[in-house]
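Weekend entry, working from home. Most of the wet-lab plans are on hold until the incubator is repaired, so I used the time to fold the two sequences that have been sitting in the queue since the last round of cloning. Logging both here for the record. First:
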Amino acid sequence: MVSKLLLFPYWLVLKIRNRRYDSGAAKSTFFEDIPVISIGNVTVGGTGKTPMTEYIIRRLIGDYKVAVLSRGYKRKSDEFHIVSETDTVDMSGDEPLQIKRKFPSVTVAVCKDRVTAVQILKDQTRELRPDVIILDDGFQYRRLKPMLSIVLQDYNRPIFKDELLPLGRLRDLPEQIRRADVMVCTKCPEALNDWERSEVKRGAHLGEDRTMLFAKSFYGEPMAVFPELGNKRYIYSKDVFVFTGIASDNPILLYLSDKYDWIAHEKYPDHHKFTDKDALHLNSYAKAHPRALLLTTEKDAQRLRECSLLSEEFKSRLFYLPVMTQFLSEGDAESFDELLRSVLPRKASAPLTAEPDTQESEHKGVRQEHKQKAQSENTDWTLF
């Protein structure tokens, strides 16, 4: 009861804001001539937006010119900027820079005004104009209406059991997830039976007409933060010093607990900018533990590359752990591909692996809605 009273002002602001967009009192721009795919959540970080963005890039990059659009959290400018691999975090933000360095052929743009940014991207020359734009963290950005909206929920933090900020991690009203075309429950345990799936969906208050898919996270082999200096023999050490500046570090620590005999962990705030003082502290810790692997996240690696005071010894032992997402079943993966196909422009070669099955699926309503929109507006979208 006390929490409801404390959170009422924030709840009211969110309620009024969403109602203004729902009623049309606040303008929401829809681009009918270029597909915008939004990935977002209703919580503060930790649901796997960046791995999901990278998953979609991998599904599309062979057949489409892909652009990723982000606000570029904590960068110094709000203006439109095309990210370069040689950018600093201050210019681009850590996550956009990570995506650009991993996928150099993908256009990555940052801008506070994402409506203007989409207009700039689609007005480029034919050679540069993207076929599809992935809107990173776009669920709360209601000024822009995507053609496909994907909302994520961490399996370990059910949104209807959480509280609004600052008492919890919700930054929007949990019922807003019903605006999405599909909800993906991320970070699931690999063995999730049908009954457990139905319970998760019921806990999210999704009706029978709404789609929920299930995905897990998995980690790749450690990669050198400074490839020219990385000493791979430290990967096989039994000791690890891990330091993180991310919203949720429990999954990575749980994973490492099965791999290493000794683990030391130092936690920094999300999107932490490592200072000279931090660098000296990390150097001294590494010197005191000469056999330990030094491990961080891929997002933190973008910021650590800019620390000028890190020692050569520290750099040679510093690795990051790539994290990826994967759907729990082939059926969920194919259902997700079908949703992507439903908004993608016609291409001579079919994208994403195989042609979709002609059998009816629970996504028929979403696909039919986009198809009718395309037919009524004479735009060049089709189902494969």
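Second, folded right after the first finished:
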Amino acid sequence: MTKLLAYIPFVEPLHALQDWWYLLLIPLAFGISVIYKALRSSTLDHYWQHVLVMTGQIVAAMIALALVLVILVQVLVPLIPVE
């Protein structure tokens, strides 16, 4: 009980979603897509279809960037000569 009372955010984070934190990208991308499409669309025809497409594009871009960074760090950085 005392450990819960001494909880300091950002210094001692809670470990509730530690194993699945990357899944929070989906609701984040969905929220960004909903707001962006609501502000930028002149009509609301096919609104949800556009929101879902944009959500998929954001998630796919983040996955592609993660793969590029993994390749960069795991493959290319060890090839750099160290003196």
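Plan for Monday: verify the second prediction. The helical segments are 2-5, 25-40, 47-76.
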